[in-house]
Amino acid sequence: MADRLIVIGGDAAGMSAASQARRRRDRDDLEIIAFERGHFTSYSACGIPYWISGLVDYNELIIRDPETHRREHQIDVRLRHEVVKIDLDRREVVARDLENGGREVRESFDELVYAAGAVPTVPDWARTDAGGVFGVQTLDDGKALRHWLEGDPKPKRAVVVGGGYIGVEMAEAMIERGLAVTLVERGEQPMSTVDPDMGRMVRDALDGLGIDVRTGVTITGLTTEGGRVSGVRTSEVTIPADVVVLGTGVRPNVRLAAEAGLPIGPTGGIRTDLRMRVIGAPGVWAAGDCVETLHKTTGQPVYVPLGTHANKQGRVAGINIGGGYATFPGVIGTAVTRVCDLEVARTGLLEPEARIAGFEFITVTVESTSTASYFPDAAKMTVKLIAEKGTGRLLGAQIVGRSQSAKRIDTLAVALWNKMTVDEMSMLDLGYAPPYSPVWDPVLVAARKAVDILHST
Amino acid sequence: MADRLIVIGGDAAGMSAASQARRRRDRDDLEIIAFERGHFTSYSACGIPYWISGLVDYNELIIRDPETHRREHQIDVRLRHEVVKIDLDRREVVARDLENGGREVRESFDELVYAAGAVPTVPDWARTDAGGVFGVQTLDDGKALRHWLEGDPKPKRAVVVGGGYIGVEMAEAMIERGLAVTLVERGEQPMSTVDPDMGRMVRDALDGLGIDVRTGVTITGLTTEGGRVSGVRTSEVTIPADVVVLGTGVRPNVRLAAEAGLPIGPTGGIRTDLRMRVIGAPGVWAAGDCVETLHKTTGQPVYVPLGTHANKQGRVAGINIGGGYATFPGVIGTAVTRVCDLEVARTGLLEPEARIAGFEFITVTVESTSTASYFPDAAKMTVKLIAEKGTGRLLGAQIVGRSQSAKRIDTLAVALWNKMTVDEMSMLDLGYAPPYSPVWDPVLVAARKAVDILHST
Q1: Where is the Pyridine nucleotide-disulphide oxidoreductase dimerisation domain (chains A, B) (predicted)?
Q2: Which fold has domain B122-248?
Q3: Over pLDDT 70: what percentage of chain A?
Q4: Would you say the ipTM is above 0.90?
Q5: Residue A37 CB contacts under 8 Å (≥ 6 apart), including other chains
């Protein structure tokens, strides 16, 4: 008789695991059931801002629909089914069919993949029965927001809360839809995923788009009118709003896992080993936005909910379930985003993160161009490096610049991944031609300057 | 009394060495004389094609002019002075002043930097007294070509010989100037710096520009008319030409060095240690297009005349002369170029190079996009990897693609530099956001596929 794999969560991590397991074990050997609470499988949540702005169509965000999973991978995908209980002793799950009055189904498993993702952090002040307050974490969230934006009366003023990636991307999307946009951030600068000295450049770009950026602001509540949101109250003023978008982050969706006794780590995510096995729970795997992972630079567990990790972790779990061997080695905190034509990227640790980890370090910031400086419209590019005192080891890097800047973070990411020192980095053999870089690539210029500082301290 | 440093060659390597030495030792401690045969110092030879095409002005290619070197670095730059002899026993050089009837000057040195660069490989058939045949290696070469192109009668038909970087870039520059262009390449495909399967895509791009590409063709001679070139003879036909540009490569300019008894390696370049000291010649340094260097992947000496290496090697020599410590660790063969809007890049070894080095390997080629595939105008990108059998270590990588493709070679270059295996690479934490990459970056997709192949062989 075939084993049975049950997957909880039909997005990147869960469906990658399912597909990989299927590649290695056919249906006579492994039956696969995937429960998904929403209406979609395997979609690019990171693309939602570009759908809201109108740049892409929502169905383009769906990488693989349920029918394809069923037909090509013989995966029994059950949409609108919310798993409500995991019973590890009886090795079964209980799911509720949300379309049929909550009818419960009970299915046993040999292997279980927990890939329930993340849930948005909803601040207390944002809990309201009034319409017009949205997260943008799932495609279902995005649909609800689009519907509101196109509704009657048409919203004209948006407040976006939180200046991280999602907040900044959503603020831009709203501006592109013609709304007046206020971005509210608690910290010193928007784009809190880079240090404030780099974030200042992002703020300038947001200003340039006509976004009203307010930093150092704490929100205290909402005002409503006729069942609709009408404003966001801060300690000082009330900002009028017909729609409020929450970019206040997410936390791992682990309630079910915790109830079943699966181990939750210090970050709030599920603890797994390098093969994505849940610690202490044979036959149970976890992957994606619900797990914590190793930060390779600090050696500490960290929670980094990103599609790129979810895909890899799901793949790793699936290969192992399929009888292969794969490990997920951890992360180094690489991320990129775009604000209008400004590109923003980071890898490794920010200054405060490096300090908390116990490192002493030097920092260096250089301005260069992403092409030869004499090239027409040579694009400005700022590179910041953080290097350990003494060893000179690269601990973190940040880039803010125009065209062709952001993906240079990968060069720095691979250097950091390999524990390179800025000394070694300054002699790296990188590609040079005038349309692509000055003869000293900005990455090399930064490394060179870091060497000078290290040698003079 | 101050020591004296003499530098032979006033371009990237020589002047980097001079400037770095000056940064560490003031004029009371070190006198610096630099002899340069041509009219310019410290310029971007790689920018010449973009000057010929009219994209940039030639004076923008000059990074630092002689006057700046004299004023800011107190370097006694002597233009139009050709060094004709190095006497190691007497520790002096003899230079000829080309502007003053060849008057000879004799200067002693304590330290000598030999940075005489490269000389173009001129095939026998190209030696002619007729006008219209040009190399494009120096700014002086570029000036002569520009003059011819703007002369009377105005050339209408160009033949570019050699399908390497320079040839391809020059062919494009000529097309942009409105000439009819034929590109003649001896090998199977143009862009011989990548494997033929990748070169085929470059050929398509050249075809698209209207360049008449002829491969597998051997040139036998020139035809001339009234003291001007009129055509290029091949074994089969004569191709009419009012101007012929040689992109037939360069070789190290080592005549003087060899006459002085400095050691020449198997590649024809001068042999140095990692600090850029000429082997067995105390106080003599060499850097740039006249030296051979270590290929970090094969462990063999290699000749790679590129501005990026020249700058680094010059810097290393200068730091050491200045009393600091620096080494040039070698190269891995990274290079990028652009053909119209097609981006071409490589790092590490091509297939035949890997074979000659003694490696057994697998290759993998994947097609992907440089942004999320659902992004408007998602640009196609092809990645080829060469990985060692057994270990899975990356040996080489090639990229051909549209926008945002080429500089991804740096990600692969740093991975290769650090001897990463494709297994490790497939889990790298690279930047992901829809404007910059699919959720699996093309680099990761290629690594993943290489892993599959390695595990199945």
Answers
A1: 337-438
A2: FAD/NAD(P)-binding domain (3.50.50)
A3: 100
A4: yes
A5: A9, A80, A81, A82, A83, A98
